[in-house]
Amino acid sequence: MDATARKIAIIEIMKEQRSVKISLLAEKMDVTRETIRRDLSSLEQRKLIRLIRGGATLNIPTNETSYERRLRIQSKQKEKIAAAFCEYLKEGDTVYLDFGSTCLAVAKKIKQFKHLTVITNSLPIINELYKSENIQLFVLGGLARKNEGSFFGKEAQNNLKAFSINIGFFSGSGIDTRFGLSNHNMNESDLSREAIKHCQTIAVGVDHTKFGTVLPQRMIAIENIDLLISDVADKQIITDLCSRTALIQTKNEVS
Question: Does domain 69-253 sit in CATH 3.40.50.12280?
């Protein structure tokens, strides 16, 4: 692999992970650390990355929202999680898609179905699905959270009361054996908790970076999750879920 190919590969890796260690890149590309340092220095001069102690981080535009940044992080893993979730859907299902970048990955995958009803509070998901002839789309409405592009509030919660949902897909910024699935924002989490009440099957999709993280807003206890989809198998979580939850491991399919 020549220098140009290495630099392209480094940027692709950083689109997934945002920050990388020199030692990891050297091992992955089978070159010396000095070679990687030269590559990173060249990329920094082009303002594509920023050097940090022991590695580098991807340069992010200052006007980019946290949601836009998350779309690039662990994107391949999110696609695998979304594809695994679709295996549990059947034509005619009513599906709830919560807010977040992993849920958007699901929205992109479910357009393959010929007849689904989708309920969501996510503006990015609305934009993804509203032109699809095969999707009957219900929008909950409510107050808009600009940074996330999601709707929340009493109006959105009240609109859920009319629905009986076959399966709901939820994600979060943290999942822990004792605390369950958790997130940052109280208003969004209130709506997620209300949506969970209306779902016959509750699916949670999280990549491995979320394991062991606890955030202020608990959305659902670990024992109440029917289907957990991830790219890594946490043995303690599997033990606690017992026979109630199927865990799909896509780790071997993700490079």
Answer: no
- Find residue 120's DSSP bridge partners: 97, 139
Q: Which CATH fold topology does 3-58 show? A: Arc Repressor Mutant, subunit A (1.10.10)
Residue 113 Rama label (left phi>0; alpha psi -120 to 50; beta): beta
pLDDT over threshold 90, residue 249: no
Tokens 């999280």 belong to 206
Residue pLDDT, tens place only, 131-145: 999 999 999 988 888
* Span(s) in the chain for CATH 3.40.50.1360: 69-253
To the question of pTM greater than 0.85 for the whole model, the response is: no
Q: Predicted confidence band at 128 (pLDDT cuts at 50, 70, 90)?
A: very high
Residue that has been written with the tokens 């689904």 in this structure: 116
Q: Which residues make up the CATH 1.10.10.10 domain(s) of the chain?
A: 3-58
In this predicted structure, what is the pLDDT of residue 106?
Answer: 96
* Tokens representing residue 97 in the block: 């898609």
How confident is the model over 48-73, as a mean pLDDT? 67
Helices marked H in the chain: 3-17, 22-29, 33-45, 66-72, 75-86, 101-109, 123-129, 154-159, 186-197, 235-241
